[in-house]
């Protein structure tokens, strides 16, 4: 083929990247992505690119365990393992972005003869039921 370095095979090497995601509340899910590599990919010390996959759901304040590896295994690659922590209601714009964070806040004042429950920051347009068990 024209433009190939001398001694290189005519076939472009390829690999499969396997992404396995697991949460505490669901069984593991796996995605396989086929990647075509450049001829000199092992001699390069830079990134070949990036992969963004947004289809693994994470529960509110949950964890997503990722394991990424290549198949067939190449001598210069290993297994990448990472844990992604899902969003929770503590970051500044969570109330606007996460529906489950749109709840009123509760506070109590306890005296000698009574206890007062304060319901504050009620989101406009949302309705809540408050059950008080004594």
UniProtKB/TrEMBL annotation:
This is Interleukin-17 receptor C/E N-terminal domain-containing protein. InterPro entries: IL-17_rcpt_C/E_N. Residues 15-133 form the Interleukin-17 receptor C/E N-terminal domain. Pfam families: IL17_R_N. It comes from the Eukaryota.
